[in-house]
Amino acid sequence: MEAFNKSIYLQSAKGNYLRLLGSLNLDVNTETYGSFDRIHWGWKKRDFEDSTLCFAMVPMIKALELGVFEIHRTDLHKIVLDHLLKIQRRNGSFDQSYPNEGHPKVGLDLSQLYYLILKRDKSDSSVMQSYLRLMKYSLHSEETYGKISNHLAHHSYEYLCAFDLTGDKEFYKHALKNIYQIKEWTDTEGWHQEYSGADPGYQTRALKYLVKCLPILNGSDRELCFELCLGSARFLKKAIMPDGTIYSGFGSRNTSIIYPSGIEWMASKLPDEFSELAARVRSGIEKTLTMRPEHLEFDNFIRLFDDYLEAYSNAQDNVLHGELDKSSWSLDSMGLCCFSFRGYKIYIHKNYGGSTLVYRGGRLLFKDGGVLVSFGKSFYGSKNIDSPSWVEGNPLDGELLVKSRGFKSAHREVSPAKQIVLRILNYSILRVSPLSDLFRKFVVRMLMTGRGIQSPASFTRRIKITDNELAIEDEVHSNSVPDCVYKVTCQNLIHMASSRYGGASDLQYSGYIVEKLECDNLKNSFFTRFELV
Questions:
Q1: Taking the mean position of all CA atoms in its chain, how far away is CA 219?
Q2: Residues in a beta bridge with 355
């Protein structure tokens, strides 16, 4: 059995710290001295600073403590904090995209930097006052525009940190309220709601923060949180693929990023149950099959980089890549099932049009995300979002039939005219919190869940497994002939910053990543066959 050392996390960190330093403005004669938004201060490619990027100081502090790199300057955190004190609004909030934005998560993305500094030294009253204004503002303006469990987990941890620092029980109560909300949004299969369903990628981020909550929680509250962590990790044992990756086409938010620190913590506490999962994740990182920090844009880079440092601190020194579970199983509520057959593991997502992956051992052999059709400039995919597909049968018993009504791609490009309208709205009516919340709900519905969008096409997929092959037949049903039909390996039909990353496996299927098919009648059948040797 292959052993994977935890040093993989520091190896990545050592190659990335200069990216942090390169994004920090250290020019004292500029107004943005202490900002990490190089796109704003360095290139002037946007007219407003993203204050959340100052979170980059958090992994820098942790990397210095771990000895990943050495610098002689000891004032960098003070430079960044002084900048934050200068740009903080009177009500305690911070801006990310436009003036007086008022979004609570912006400040909570920065609060960990305050906590790390104040935990060591509370003598600077201006920093403490700024932190308390930030936390008090966030406390009374929680997100209400969608079911986003990983955000609630993150916020719970930040409120518990505020309780740990101040002893104010209001923070503890609010953290517990969020944890109970996550519990309500948790399916019996262990997955949490992420907008319209399960998303294994964001589940790893939620787990990261839930395990961080445990040391601060008390008694039965801690037990409740640990049960959420346990159910989450057991779900991830199934949802993370044999090669240690997440297939984004199986997630409600199409996320392929894995935050490993929570998994590593669970493996350190329950090695018999979760060490193999930790080894699987490390294998994907070592073989560059999964998204690593250096693969990401700066916003996601700093968060994953921070998580790698925590994963190193949480991890056991070596874990063994043991035998995978050879049983067949089905997560009926999520829609994902796995068939073990003659050494193969065949994954099928019923609610996503029968999207199919085939593995042998830890190697991905086949990837089919279904059918995509276009009518004019609009695209429609063979996946269901807000209602289950019609499913019948079992491919091992003869045939699995999956019928999908289809889902319209929710991607929208923002034209210059729309940008102007948005800026006017941001400066006027969207400063009123109830109106801004309604607007966010509208945007979420339009771009991230797509509910209520009717498709002019419906889809039928038949999957059959014989001794020699996996056979897939796709049919497109429509009253009018589509302009184009495509066979694709993944359907990312929603707008999400964490989606649409190209993975290594995408490049292994030259000629099959997107295959354009002829379409000349109203009922079209398309066949795909994979040989099972």
A1: 30
A2: 349
Could you tell me the pLDDT band of residue 510, with boundaries at 50, 70 and 90? very low
pLDDT tens track for 479-504 = 888 888 888 888 888 877 777 677 66
Asked if residue 213 lies in contact with residue 157, where contact means CB atoms within 8 angstroms, the answer is yes
159/169 Cα distance (integer angstroms): 10
**Rounded distance between C-alpha atoms, residue 467 and residue 197, angstroms:** 34
Name every residue whose Cβ is closer than 8 Å to that of residue 489 and which is 6 or more positions away in sequence. 249, 367, 368, 369, 506, 509, 512, 513, 514
**Digit-coded pLDDT (tens) for 404-443:** 888 888 877 788 888 888 878 877 887 777 777 787 777 7
Query: Hey, CA dihedral for 357, 250, 226, 5, is it positive or negative?
Result: positive
Query: How many Å is the Cα radius of gyration of the chain?
Result: 24
Distance CA 279, CA 6 (A): 9
pLDDT digits (tens, 9 = 90+) for 123-168: 889 999 999 999 999 998 777 777 899 999 999 999 999 999 999 9
> H-type helices in 242-331, by residue range?
261-269, 271-286, 298-314
Distance CA(222)–CA(339), nearest Å, equals 36
